[in-house]
Design goal:
By secondary structure, the chain is mostly helical. It has ten helices and no strands.
Length: about 200
């Protein structure tokens, strides 16, 4: 009896051989490897995905980006909490060093993690929010009210992405692009805070 899934009595092995005829050596292996790689990429990162690599810990905000909803907001809250812990032991000069190193580290971590996830700017990667909001907190007045207002203003700009944030988000690729658009959101936030403070003065 002929194989119902083949035509003219052609066997499955014969058909596979015919379909693969003329393909460059190793092409099938590469295709299979890519298929396996795609299956290994989670639709949403979880702790098991984050655990093996330092780059994933950094990019995912040490777990804050694993939140099932609004990971950017949770990443910003993590940044705020971490700032309260670090600020008493870091001078302003050291903070600028931390921000510069954190930005460079974030470019590497987000580039690699985005590649691992198959999404260059996955919403779970929140290290850009962390560095950007640390910059905001370093500059705004050190009062709860000022920091809370800065939190909401920063989240507004990060979500709405007014020009040129959206342009940067779409046109600048890789880890640098992931980090850069949130820095512009931070600058917008500082501008609003400065205007509000100046108006009240």
């Amino acid at each position: 009896m002929s194989d119902p899934l083949t035509t003219s009595g052609e066997s499955s092995s014969q058909r596979a051989g015919r379909d693969g005829a003329g393909a460059p050596p190793g092409a099938a292996i590469r295709v299979d490897a890519e298929a396996v790689d795609r299956r290994d990429r989670p639709a949403r990162p979880d702790f098991a995905f984050m655990l093996p690599r330092l780059s994933r810990w950094i990019a995912l905000g040490f777990g804050s980006g694993l939140a099932p909803v609004a990971p950017g907001t949770f990443g910003t809250l993590f940044a705020w909490a971490a700032f309260q812990v670090l600020d008493p032991v870091l001078s302003d000069g050291l903070w600028w060093v931390v921000l510069a190193l954190g930005f460079a580290l974030g470019c590497w971590a987000c580039e690699r993690t985005g590649r691992d996830l198959g999404v260059p700017d996955h919403s779970g990667m929140v290290w850009d929010e962390v560095i950007a909001f640390w910059l905001v907190l370093l500059v705004v007045p050190a009062t709860f009210a000022s920091q809370l207002a800065a939190f909401f203003v920063f989240r507004f700009f990060d979500v709405v992405k007014p020009p040129p944030i959206r342009l940067i988000d779409r046109s600048v690729k890789g880890g640098f692009g992931v980090m850069a658009d949130d820095l512009v959101a931070a600058l917008y936030t500082l501008l609003v805070v400065a205007l509000w403070t100046g108006w009240r003065a």
